[in-house]
Amino acid sequence: MLKSTAAGAAAAGLILATAPVATAAQVSVVRNFYVPYGASYATGTATFTNRWVTLDGTLHAVGCGRVVYGDSYAAGKGIDGGSASSTPRCDGNWPIHIPVPADVVGGADSVLITLAAPDGAAARWAYRDISLSR
């Protein structure tokens, strides 16, 4: 009887050890952005999640070669591999969807959004604020 109880306890231990670990729900924070550059602009939202900042919106391009870049930051430092960009576009309204990596614990706390053209660039910051007081 003792052997079967020990075997049963060992089997129960295996079941508990392989059970999936519960994780907290992922917190996402959404911030609006608007980046003008001459007659061109990028507008939309920056959605901050645990390991990504996703830029969604519209690029209004006047001229050619307009590109939207995103660079992720945590605690004031650039995140390694934390850059992404849209496809260069010419004249028109173009949807943008740019997943910017933020592969650090907790993700990025800010993203630098740059609208660039062959002749220069304009930039704006978007910040994550997860405080409950705002």
For the terminal residues, how far apart are their CA atoms? 62 Å
Roughly what percent helix? 10-25%
Return the string of H and E elements: HEEEEEEEE
Count of beta strands: 8
Mind summarizing the main beta sheet?
Answer: 4 strands, antiparallel
CATH fold field value: Immunoglobulin-like
> How large is the count of helical segments?
1
Task: Provide a quick synopsis of the model.
This protein has one helix at 2-18, and strands spanning 29-37, 40-48, 52-61, 67-74, 77-85, 92-101, 110-117, 120-127.
Describe the overall structure:
By secondary structure, the protein is mainly β. It has a single domain (27-127), classed as Sandwich (Immunoglobulin-like), CATH 2.60.40. It is 13% helix and 53% strand. The chain is built from one helix and eight strands. It has one helix spanning 2-18, and strands at residues 29-37, 40-48, 52-61, 67-74, 77-85, 92-101, 110-117, 120-127. It has a four-stranded antiparallel beta sheet, with no helix packed on it. A four-stranded antiparallel beta sheet has the order 5-4-7-8, with no helix packed on it. Strand 4 (67-74) and strand 5 (77-85) form a beta hairpin. The chain is elongated and about 40 Å long. The protein starts with a helix and ends in a 7-residue tail after the last strand. The model is unreliable at 2-25 and 129-134 (pLDDT under 50). This is Secreted protein. It comes from Amycolatopsis plumensis. Keywords: Signal. Residues 1-24 form the signal peptide.
Topology:
Layout: H1 2-18, E1 29-37, E2 40-48, E3 52-61, E4 67-74, E5 77-85, E6 92-101, E7 110-117, E8 120-127
Antiparallel strand pairs: 1-2, 2-3, 3-6, 4-5, 4-7, 7-8
